[in-house]
Amino acid sequence: MSMGEVVRAETIGRVLVVTLNRPEARNAINGEVAQEIEDHLDRLERDQSLWVGVLTGSPPAFSAGADLKEIAAGRGATLSTTKGGFAGIVERRRKKPLIAAVEGAALAGGCEIVLACDLIVAGQSASFGLPEVKRSLVAGAGGLFRLFDRLPSNIAIEMILTGNPIKAPVAEQFGLVNRLCGDGNALKSALNLAEQICENAPLSVWESLAVTQLYKQSRDAELFKRSNEALNRVMQSEDLNEGLRAFIEKRRPNWAGK
Questions:
Q1: Which is it for strands 98-102 and 85-86: parallel, antiparallel or unpaired?
Q2: Hey, where are the domains in the chain?
Q3: What is the block-wise mean pLDDT of the chain (258 residues), using blocks of 10 residues?
Q4: Per-residue b or e along 34-70, where b marks 16 or more CB atoms closer than 10 Å to that residue's CB
Q5: How much is the CA Rg of the chain, to the nearest whole Å?
Q6: pLDDT at 215
Q7: Catalytic residue ranges
Q8: Residue 174 and residue 104: Cα distance in Å, rounded?
Q9: DSSP symbols for 233-246
Q10: Does this model's pTM top 0.90?
Q11: From CA 88, how far away is CA 31, in angstroms rounded?
Q12: If residue 202 lies in a helix (H) or strand (E), which one and from where to where?
């Protein structure tokens, strides 16, 4: 594997490990990353020798979410794929379990990628957040409703409205994180969890997972529609341009509310 790949993959036994590999951009999602994630998930679904997937990021972060420079340049549509939606994953229908192994920050679309996974393993210093409101954006990739699947509603609402993240120990306390481990050990812990899943009959695992996903799929279709409508409205605002400029110029935004 070339270290120049923006998404790397390797097989460990019956597990496919997919690694976001844009550390200089905190593994932010651009069009190339989105398409490669989708391609690797296609491989996971297609290859009968692979039973579980693990998704992680090259340090120092899991993912900062959408590459805002791409959005500012008018290339926001490239961050989604036809099959998987944002990052090639958040609207993807999958048969096989996917575990997120999180080190560092999983923010905005990065957090939504994590929420699209079935299980979450995190290092002590990992953090999770939806800071879109700080840039005049909307968490349109599932975060506005999937966060409620994993957290008490009061915690989820506070995260959404303040844009402030929570640390992994708090996330574990409230049920967002399945396993908390020492920093640097998230991938190892995720592989251990994957091995436990692989000890079971694969068809039974996949069929069981399919049943648990049924209610989410019909619900999510309507909520993704509403999220996209909300995102489209704020994308037309003056505040969006101000939020993106402030991000690029590393300053506080001056909101106008229009």
A1: unpaired
A2: 7-183
A3: 76 98 97 97 98 98 94 88 96 96 98 98 98 93 96 97 98 98 98 98 97 86 90 89 86 91
A4: bbbbbebbeebbeeeebbbbbbbbbeebbbbbbbbeb
A5: 17
A6: 81
A7: 112, 132
A8: 19
A9: HHHTSHHHHHHHHH
A10: yes
A11: 9
A12: helix 202-235
Dump pLDDT digits (tens) for 129-176: 999 999 899 999 999 999 999 999 999 999 999 999 999 999 999 999
Q: Are 237 and 258 in contact (CB under 8 A)?
A: yes
* 7-183 CATH choice from 3.90.226.10, 3.30.450.20, 3.30.420.40, 3.30.950.30: 3.90.226.10
Token code pair at residue 78:
């490239």
176/100 Cα distance (integer angstroms) = 11
Residue 192's closest CA among 17, 1, 8? Answer: 17
Residue type at position 17 = V
> How confident is the model at residue 4, as a pLDDT?
61
